[in-house]
Task: inverse folding
């Protein structure tokens, strides 16, 4: 059975690179659509595929995908940065990933969606305050000054946030917060 797929692209070079990468997967019925078109109005495709060069664009695309599954190809040097977007409906893969890995991701995204509800991590009021200040662009010292606490206390809260989110850097933490923490 062929899975209807919408390939979103910025230019012909990106389109051809991704089409070449998907050529070993004949189970996909691929329709190509430039990102400049009104691709959101196209119905029938349950899977969107796109090459993303930056994290901000990937986050925006993920929000615009709504009820569709999304496969994002990333540049090789930025692969780990995008993994915070991965969940039941979204997979990020390095464009040069092994064929088996691509096949597994496609199979997971094309299969019937599981009724999975991600549990939001329980965050204390202080952890939420610290996250919000980091999201507003403040650094550790400014967060501490703003809340009237020591920098070492902010660092301790940040470590707890790393453990709860499963990420390893502040940039990944911020992406996680934007995507997973209810406002």
Result:
């Amino acid at each position: 059975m062929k899975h209807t797929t919408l390939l979103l692209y910025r230019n012909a070079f990106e389109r051809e690179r991704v089409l070449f990468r998907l050529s070993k997967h004949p189970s996909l019925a691929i329709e190509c659509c430039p990102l400049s078109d009104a691709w959101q109005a196209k119905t029938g495709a349950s899977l969107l595929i796109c090459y993303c060069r930056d994290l901000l664009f990937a986050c925006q695309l993920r929000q615009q995908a709504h009820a569709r599954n999304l496969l994002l190809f990333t540049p090789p040097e930025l692969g780990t940065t995008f993994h915070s977007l991965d969940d039941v409906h979204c997979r990020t893969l390095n464009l040069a990933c092994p064929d088996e890995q691509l096949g597994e991701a496609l199979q997971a995204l094309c299969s019937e969606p599981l009724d999975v509800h991600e549990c939001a991590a329980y965050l204390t009021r202080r952890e939420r305050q610290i996250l919000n200040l980091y999201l507003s662009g403040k650094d550790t010292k400014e967060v501490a000054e703003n809340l009237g606490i020591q920098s070492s206390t902010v660092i301790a809260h940040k470590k707890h946030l790393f453990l709860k989110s499963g990420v390893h850097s502040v940039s990944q933490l911020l992406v996680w917060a934007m995507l997973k923490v209810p406002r």
